[in-house]
């Protein structure tokens, strides 16, 4: 039932005969209850049930599973407990009456299973736990117990199964009874105890099981008080005269609800009293529990045996006065009493909120966690046994539950990666012991260097209510003397928030000289003397002279001086507190003994920021998602509830601007509309309105609509060519138009973008429309990789969006191939430079008014005054004169006869000037009138006051075609001024703010409207953005199927909620779940914990409606056929059918795609220089030979990429290319040599692939990897591999046998 690689759902094949699944499910239950199964077979049945309960999205599976956890299972509840639960929920009593009628005396085996199966499973588990005793358990026995607990956890962590199953579990007190069992004390039961910890967490999870509403801290406390009051009432009613219980009746809560106080009061009570208290307070009736009945029977037998033994010892003597002997408890009675006491204590002790424990947890892994195989499993996990890991499945109880599962899994996955780095770097340092038993390093490593010293500088007091320090600052010193230049440069590029690891190596007497790969996880620290590992976060990096090398602004970084380096770091306060407590208890002080420092690659070293962000979200009551997305996010309700047309905020009219190329484009874009009304000869830009024809439709289907199109004209924005708006030239398909429409509307949009279907162009057009339709809203763009984000950003830059509103956060800006710098500091510098350019234009404008030397362009404020008093005034005067002169200039003499000055305007009613002036005006007016009459000029060009300024614009400025067209040009010129001075006003803040950091913060929070970043950078910078009161309204995510669940969630929370409501209006997720999922290096976290599940893929599993792009324009149709079967109706765009580049054959090559069978080369196929580092020299030579041949055929090197499915082969290919090609200008190097996984999201004209493996299929068993491999090429795809191995994989569906060529 479990799929090995998770790429294809096993349920797809079962769904073809789903009508038979119910019978199969019943057979499995019958097998379980038959009593004929061995423990190993029972474990397999449990695994089957676990897989079923994890796949409730399948309707036929859900129908079978939920019947086992329905209300009918409450027949096995304690009567008092059932009455209490029924009284809480008003709807349940009526349902319970119906259930009683149906299941009181079940006739069929199915009804019996529905009523009894879960209760019997719990009873059987407890019986087995007791029967196993304290003997050494076999693998099958332990596996059976662990699978049982795993199933219980899975039933509790989903609300549909939790609702009625948890009361059963609470009645049985499974966790306490397991913890007190003899099995739990065995050393091999460590995994069992860890699973019990997870089970206990979910049993006590803070949620209302009926409504699914999270419980607040106050509500949890109230429930706790209710349980204590029940205890006091029971003590008063049942044992009013018992002196041991009188104190419990009267004591206050604070003195009773601690573990110590409860133990003190309960341990003195006799068994009979404990039984009553358990029955009344904990709903555990000993007489009705088969396991406890058996234990009580053993108690009675032990007491009887003890009495007989005492009777035999007494000899018949003269009767003496009898002394009352104190009754001695037998071992059996002690054990039962201790169990009942523990059950009472567990029920009544003060609850601990899980988030409080998380806040005390160190974020950096230590040596205890790093080399613990139970918590961080080894590389190869087969799925044959349980793990103490949370699972990411379809549903979550609350947002807090979602965050905690992701926190734990992400923390352990990060620890696994850190362990790999440590095990790679530490052996390279070659630690040795000197004569004084000290440690020195004779080797060197790229990422590690000896530590010169560490000094704790400042420990701040804990915050109110905390126990750990609020901050611990330290200084770390090291020397770069003797390091190579490129390594020195890498150490000097450490930045703020980078994490380093401080290690204590105590060199063993005998250095290890074997293979590191052969060591187990627990053996490594012993062989290499690893004693301590601590993490720290860099805040500043200084050189010998104290210059700051880590300033985020490149312009302010200094050139390093000297070899010494000092890093000011933040230590983990929680870990520091634990270390101090350990030292107080007699353990060694740690920080002064650390002697090695290790850094990690920046792209792999962001775990701390993500963990810190998740933890802060767990502790924040403002962690909310939009109301329209909340239920779907947790996995409940209608999967399509967040679609735009189901929300009341749907837009009835949308300005599509340049989305449609012409009126025919509109007509073909809405094939499902009832009517599309497009007037003839309509020219873009277009505005479309949507009217529902009928409100009543089939469930899940969109109402039928009527579409009406209209057009409008964009205003003239100025006389220069760059003032004309850039227009879209892509003819979007109907599906793309639907995706664009959905993205512009409020709600959730899910776009499935197969390779080459234009998902980036679609996303860019959505951004364009949001920018222009909602000018007061911000847009956040997020992607998994810098490459995808840069592709998206390059196209956005080319839109009709002013570049001053664009911002790119993160380090990936260096990879952006653009002339402009869109980083934060680049944008600040751009605005300052732009300010100078604009003020220079203002100065030029003032000169045209003969106002030079008046400092009108000294500051932005001066420029605004100049606009108001001079530009605005002249524009108003121009309109006044136009109205006087008339369209044809009939009254031009009335305007030209008076000087156009402000002073003259104020003296309009004064006496006429001298006769000489009149004569001059008369001559001028006559001349102008003649020009107007002959058509040599126009009244607008004559009166326009800014002609001198626009002398550099294309001439003539006013063609004189008509009065209206000239007036529109004049209006456009004034709009140019308005836009210019508006931009000057935007620059004013950058003028006033003198600090570059303040300018950067203003840019983010106020100025920029489109902000792009990677999902990792979103986690890194969230706390900063929240502290800056950053606000945004729209979120668009590319490569959503490649982003981890929590890394998709964090970008939704880059702002604080407003009155408990999220400001987010639109979420657009673009991805392809048929390609590779998020990268998870540890198979245990991938297969068992489902950490590689993306939010996008989960929504798809929940059957959330998607917009599936269905026409590709990247690859030849013949190449597209290799992977199009994986998608729904994937066709081809016209360009790949008609373009000559796609129609002609590849030069010198027979086939557009080909599989080349490679037999053993020099007697060898695949090889492993180190474990799992696969290489194949024959394939590498053939791939490079083909590359060289293609170069000789005239194909440019940048049009060719070489891919492999393994890192080992990638390294070998680079070596061969370096040897044979790099030095020769005739060949050069291909555009890229990398792995298929790293190349996802990229493409090239020609792709050469090496499959490497010759004995097993290997990575190719994952269909998603095959889809990525086949879809990277435009014109030619050439695959080298072993035919017999590959043909047994999915290649038989990808490459036809006719093309399998030697």
From TrEMBL:
Residue ranges occupied by any RNA helicase aquarius beta-barrel domain in the UniProt entry: 434-600
Residue ranges occupied by any RNA helicase aquarius insertion domain in the UniProt entry: 651-722
Molecular function as annotated in GO: helicase activity
Residue ranges constituting the RNA helicase aquarius N-terminal domain according to the UniProt record: 7-303
Residue ranges of domain DNA2/NAM7 helicase helicase in the record: 736-1082
Localization: Nucleus
Alphabetical keyword list: ATP-binding, Helicase, Hydrolase, mRNA processing, mRNA splicing, Nucleotide-binding, Nucleus
Ranges where the DNA2/NAM7 helicase-like C-terminal domain occurs: 1091-1283
Composition skew (Basic and acidic residues), residue ranges: 914-924
Record bears the keyword ATP-binding: yes
SUPFAM superfamilies, A to Z: P-loop containing nucleoside triphosphate hydrolases
Keyword Secreted annotated: no
Region named Disordered: 901-924
InterPro entries attached to this UniProt entry: Aquarius_b-barrel, Aquarius_insert, Aquarius_N, CWF11_fam, DNA2/NAM7-like, DNA2/NAM7-like_C, DNA2/NAM7_AAA_11, P-loop_NTPase
Entry's family note: Belongs to the CWF11 family.
PANTHER family: DNA2/NAM7 HELICASE FAMILY, RNA HELICASE AQUARIUS
Name assigned to this protein: RNA helicase aquarius (Intron-binding protein of 160 kDa)
Annotated source species: Durusdinium trenchii
The organism's taxonomic lineage, starting at the top: Eukaryota, Sar, Alveolata, Dinophyceae, Suessiales
């Amino acid at each position: 039932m479990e799929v090995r690689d998770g790429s294809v759902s096993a349920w797809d094949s079962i769904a073809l005969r789903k009508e038979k699944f119910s019978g199969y499910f019943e057979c499995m239950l019958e097998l379980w209850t038959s009593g004929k199964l061995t423990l190993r077979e029972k474990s397999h049945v449990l695994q089957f049930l676990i897989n079923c309960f994890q796949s409730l999205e399948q309707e036929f599976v859900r129908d079978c599973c939920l019947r086992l956890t329905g209300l009918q299972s409450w027949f096995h509840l304690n009567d008092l407990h059932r009455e209490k639960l029924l009284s809480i929920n008003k709807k349940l009593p009526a349902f319970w009456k119906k259930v009683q009628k149906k299941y009181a005396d079940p006739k069929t085996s199915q009804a019996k299973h529905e009523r009894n199966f879960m209760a019997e499973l719990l009873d059987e588990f407890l019986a087995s736990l007791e029967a196993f005793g304290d003997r050494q358990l076999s693998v099958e026995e332990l596996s059976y117990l662990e699978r049982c607990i795993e199933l219980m956890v899975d039933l509790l962590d989903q609300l549909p199964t939790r609702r009625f199953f948890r009361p059963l579990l609470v009645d049985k007190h499974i966790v306490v009874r397991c913890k007190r069992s003899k099995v739990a004390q065995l050393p091999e039961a460590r995994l069992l105890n860890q699973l019990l910890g997870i089970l206990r967490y979910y049993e006590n999870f803070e949620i209302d099981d009926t409504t699914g509403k999270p419980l607040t801290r106050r509500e949890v406390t109230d429930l706790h008080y209710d349980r204590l009051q029940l205890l006091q009432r029971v003590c008063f009613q049942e044992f009013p005269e018992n002196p041991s219980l009188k104190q419990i009746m009267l004591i206050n809560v604070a003195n009773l609800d601690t573990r110590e106080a409860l133990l003190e009061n309960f341990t003195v009570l006799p068994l009979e009293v404990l039984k009553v208290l358990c029955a009344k307070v904990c709903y555990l009736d000993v007489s009705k529990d088969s396991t406890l009945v058996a234990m009580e029977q053993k108690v009675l037998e032990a007491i009887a045996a003890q009495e007989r033994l005492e009777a035999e010892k007494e000899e018949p003597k003269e009767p003496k006065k009898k002394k009352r002997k104190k009754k001695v408890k037998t071992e059996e009675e002690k054990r039962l009493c201790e169990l009942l006491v523990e059950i009472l204590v567990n029920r009544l002790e003060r609850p601990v909120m899980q988030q409080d424990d998380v806040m005390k947890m160190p974020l950096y892994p230590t040596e205890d966690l790093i080399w613990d195989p139970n918590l961080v499993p080894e590389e190869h996990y087969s799925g044959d046994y349980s793990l103490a890991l949370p699972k990411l499945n379809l549903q979550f109880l609350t947002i807090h539950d979602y965050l905690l599962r992701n926190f734990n899994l992400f923390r352990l996955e990060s620890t696994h990666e850190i362990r790999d780095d440590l095990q790679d770097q530490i052996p390279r340092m070659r630690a040795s012991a000197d004569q004084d038993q000290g440690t020195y390093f004779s080797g060197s490593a790229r990422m590690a260097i000896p530590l010169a010293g560490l000094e704790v500088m400042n420990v701040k007091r804990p915050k109110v209510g905390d126990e750990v320090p609020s901050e611990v600052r330290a200084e770390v010193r090291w020397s770069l003397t003797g390091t190579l230049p490129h390594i020195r440069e890498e150490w000097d590029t450490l930045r703020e928030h980078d994490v380093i690891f401080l290690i204590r190596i105590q060199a063993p007497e005998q250095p290890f000289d074997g293979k590191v790969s052969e060591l187990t996880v627990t053996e490594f620290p012993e062989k290499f003397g690893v004693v301590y590992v601590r993490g720290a976060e860099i805040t500043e990096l200084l050189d010998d002279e104290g210059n700051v090398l880590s300033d985020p602004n490149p312009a302010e970084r200094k050139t390093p001086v000297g070899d010494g380096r000092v890093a000011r770091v933040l230590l983990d306060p929680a870990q520091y507190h634990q270390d101090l407590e350990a030292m107080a208890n007699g353990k060694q002080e740690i920080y002064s003994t650390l002697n090695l420092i290790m850094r990690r690659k920046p792209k792999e070293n962001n775990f701390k920021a993500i963990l810190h962000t998740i933890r802060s979200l767990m502790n924040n009551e403002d962690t909310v998602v939009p109301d329209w997305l909340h239920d779907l996010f947790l996995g409940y309700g209608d999967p399509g509830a967040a679609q735009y047309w189901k929300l009341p905020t749907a837009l009835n009219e949308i300005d599509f601007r340049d989305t449609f190329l012409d009126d025919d484009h509109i007509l073909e874009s809405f094939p499902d509309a009832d009517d599309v009304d497009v007037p003839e000869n309509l020219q873009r830009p277009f505005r479309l309105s949507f009217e529902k024809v009928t409100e009543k439709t089939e469930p899940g289907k969109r109402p039928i609509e009527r579409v009406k199109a209209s057009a409008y004209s964009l205003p003239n924005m100025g006389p220069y060519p760059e003032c004309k708006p850039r227009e879209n030239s892509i003819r979007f398909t109907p599906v793309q138009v639907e995706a664009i429409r959905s993205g512009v509307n409020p709600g959730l949009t899910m776009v499935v973008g197969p390779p080459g279907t234009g998902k980036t162009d679609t996303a860019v057009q959505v951004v364009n429309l949001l920018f222009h339709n909602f000018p007061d809203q911000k847009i956040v763009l997020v992607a998994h990789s810098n490459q995808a984000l840069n592709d998206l950003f390059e196209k956005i830059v080319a839109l009709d969006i002013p570049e001053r509103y664009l911002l790119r956060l993160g380090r990936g800006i260096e990879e952006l191939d653009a002339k402009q710098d869109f980083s934060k500091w680049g944008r600040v510098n751009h605005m300052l430079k732009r300010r100078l350019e604009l003020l220079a234009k203002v100065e030029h404008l003032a000169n045209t008014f003969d106002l030079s030397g008046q400092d009108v362009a000294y500051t932005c404020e001066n420029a605004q005054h100049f606009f108001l008093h001079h530009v605005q005034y002249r524009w108003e005067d121009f309109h006044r004169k136009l109205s006087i002169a008339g369209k044809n200039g009939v009254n031009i003499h009335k305007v030209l006869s008076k000087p156009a000055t402000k002073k003259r305007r104020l003296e309009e009613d004064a006496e006429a000037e001298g006769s000489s002036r009149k004569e001059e005006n008369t001559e001028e007016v006559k001349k102008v009138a003649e020009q107007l009459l002959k058509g040599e000029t126009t009244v607008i060009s004559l009166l326009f006051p800014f002609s001198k300024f626009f002398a550099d614009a294309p001439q003539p400025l006013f063609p004189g075609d008509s009065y209206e067209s000239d007036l529109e040009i004049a209006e456009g010129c004034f709009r140019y001024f308005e836009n210019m001075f508006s931009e000057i006003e935007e620059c004013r803040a950058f003028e006033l703010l003198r600090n570059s950091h303040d300018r950067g913060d203003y840019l983010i929070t106020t100025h920029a409207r489109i902000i792009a970043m990677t999902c990792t950078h979103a986690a890194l910078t969230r706390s900063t953005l929240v502290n800056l009161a950053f606000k945004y309204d729209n979120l668009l995510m590319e490569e959503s199927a490649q982003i981890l669940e929590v890394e998709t969630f964090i970008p939704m929370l880059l702002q604080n909620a407003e009155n408990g409501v999220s400001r987010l209006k639109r979420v657009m997720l673009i991805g392809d779940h048929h390609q590779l999922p998020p990268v998870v290096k540890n198979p245990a976290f991938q297969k068992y914990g489902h950490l590689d599940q993306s939010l996008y893929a989960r929504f798809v599993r929940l059957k959330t409606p998607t917009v599936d792009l269905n026409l590709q324009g990247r690859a030849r149709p013949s190449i597209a056929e290799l992977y199009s079967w994986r998608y729904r109706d994937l066709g081809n765009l016209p360009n790949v059918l008609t373009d000559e580049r796609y129609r002609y054959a590849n030069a010198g090559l027979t086939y557009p795609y080909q599989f080349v069978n490679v037999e053993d080369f020099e007697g060898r196929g695949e090889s492993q220089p180190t474990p799992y580092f696969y290489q194949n020299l024959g394939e590498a030579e053939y791939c490079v030979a083909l590359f060289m041949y293609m170069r000789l055929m005239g194909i440019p090197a940048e049009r060719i990429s070489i891919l492999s499915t393994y890192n080992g082969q990638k390294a070998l290919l680079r070596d061969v290319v370096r040897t044979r090609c790099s030095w020769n200008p005739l060949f050069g190097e291909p555009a890229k040599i990398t792995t298929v996984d790293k190349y996802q999201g990229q493409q090239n004209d020609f792709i050469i692939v090496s499959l490497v493996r010759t004995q097993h299929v290997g990575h190719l068993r994952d269909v998603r990897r095959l889809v990525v491999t086949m879809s990277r090429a435009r014109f030619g795809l050439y695959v080298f591999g072993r035919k017999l191995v590959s043909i047994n994989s999915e290649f038989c569906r990808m490459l036809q046998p006719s093309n399998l060529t030697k």
